[in-house]
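Example 3.2
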Amino acid sequence: MKAAVLREVGKPLQIEDVQINKPGPHEVLIRTAAAGVCHSDLHFIEGSYPHPLPAVLGHESAGVVEQVGSEVRTVKPGDHVITCLSAFCGHCEYCLTGHMSLCVSPDTKRGKDEEPRLSSPTGPMMQYLNLSSFAEQMLIHEHACVAIRPDMPLDRAALIGCGVMTGVGAAMHTSNVRPGDTVAVIGLGGVGLAAVNGAAIAGASRIIGIDMAPGKENMAKAFGATDFICAKDADVVKEVIELTKGGVQHSFEAIGLSKTAEQAFNMLRRGGTANIIGMIPVGQTISLMGAAFLGEKRIQGSLMGSNRFPVDMPRLVDFYLAGKLHLDDMISRRIKLEDVNEAFVEMKTGAVARSVIVF
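Structure, written as tokens:
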């Protein structure tokens, strides 16, 4: 099969022929229909986060089941599925206490004494985030995908697999936005727009979108923002506090920078919660004024929207088909696998929400 391979940090992905194994007892072989180009992939390409190489990248995807292992009961051949990097075992402490997105059990991967799921003529190929979806096929654990209704367009379903689940889940699950709450979202890429949309679905009364690009205002408001701040020449924290007469109850940082993480905390009202969704590069720190904690302000991480994806993703599909979840406007371009490097260049400009590879 054709796949986009990262062989060296800082270098473009290479389109190569990669061998894919057959499903083991709890594995599923999927024909990839679409894969979103996510900023998380760029972090690994640039070396902000380490990963064993060579590896097939990609982790935001949807497709059709081709084969299943002998013990698989959750999906069957022909099912349309969304994948999720939060593969879960189902029997560890995290899973049994309802925190499936935190599962790190090795049971969802192949052991060192087993044949690798992916390989090349020169040796094993590393699977990226349990998926490796920049490829014509995926071989994954059965608990890394969920079946969805067949009338859902798969190019839009792919977005739910990471960016949308991450943003919507951060609002609904991690921070538990309630009707009437006030919200600010810093960074209006795919994840940030999904957080805006999730806060709107949850019933937030005021949602402030913040981005360096003034052109993002119309899109932010289409996704549910009530206000927009262009951060290019503004004191963002001051403006948010003035707009809300004291600060917001929930803030979401969807970029991955120390400065914006600090801003997310500083724009809170007493008792507020700052949620860091963006991947701050390894080794960077943030600085907060200790006295602010006397006001019971909180700062916390959010991993994949604290999801229970086998339940959450079909619900998000229903939200989209009911007109509540805005996925159509999130896709800036539909591209071929061979165009993936160009998509990462465009991503750095901040001008696109999401490019989607359509196979």
